[in-house]
Amino acid sequence: MELGRKFYIRHSILKEEEDITHEFKGHRVLHFEEDGRNGRDANGRKTRQYISKYLCGMLNSGKGGRLYIGVLDNGQIEGVMLTRYQKDHILTSLEDIFERFEPPLHFSLYSVSFVPVLEDNEIEEGIKDGYKYWDENQRGYPHKIRTHSYCWCDLESQAALMSGLINPFYVVEIQLKSITNLKVPYRAEDGAYYIRRNAFNECIDYSELIKELECR
């Protein structure tokens, strides 16, 4: 599946592999305050890592990168079901996260795309507006962020699903621009520093990170 296409096919394999500039996530737990919602096994061990730390690591690598939400670790495309309200929630939450980075990340250094995910039998039909219910007035409702509790948009989506209404699936692509000659490292909203090493993210001490930046 090529970047820049207007849709992905469910269960297909992304051409890219996880490396220093690509990261796959099958969930949409964006920041550490959401981390308590779920994502633990029977022994209490974490099975999900919140996304903001990976974005911070990519920024401190200086190379930028692209993080895919809705893609499994093996590159298999599944997508995440999102209403229009939930898409707004993601944008609002990401804006809040980057504003809490230190230094704050300017909006010109990142972009967010919602790429539709289709089944094989939907290709000929093409991309269409699959939303079953949409009230423009609701879009002004404030979203509940910085918490592991569900937002009203999530509860609305769950209610729709229980009524048999299936909303569209997407791969959410978060693109970070490269930053040449990075001198001041980014600290994530959880208060820690991260750096990207090949396909791994590492929490790093501030002094060690400064040394790495000076050696580039």
Percent helix: 10-25%
Order of helices and strands: EEHEEHEHEEEH
| Distance, first to last CA | 33 Å
Q: Could you give the count of β-strands?
A: 8
Overall mean pLDDT: 89
How much is the radius of gyration in Å?
Answer: 18 Å
Please characterize this protein's 3D structure.
With 216 residues, the protein is of the alpha/beta class. The protein has one domain. Helices cover 22% and strands 19% of the residues. Strands 1, 2, 3, 4, 5 and 6 form a 6-stranded mixed beta sheet that branches. It is globular. InterPro entries: Schlafen, Schlafen_AlbA_2_dom, Schlafen_AlbA_2_dom_sf. It comes from Lepeophtheirus salmonis (Salmon louse). Pfam families: SLFN_AlbA_2.
Summarize the structure.
The protein is of the alpha/beta class. The protein is built from four helices and eight strands; from the N terminus they run ββαββαβαβββα.
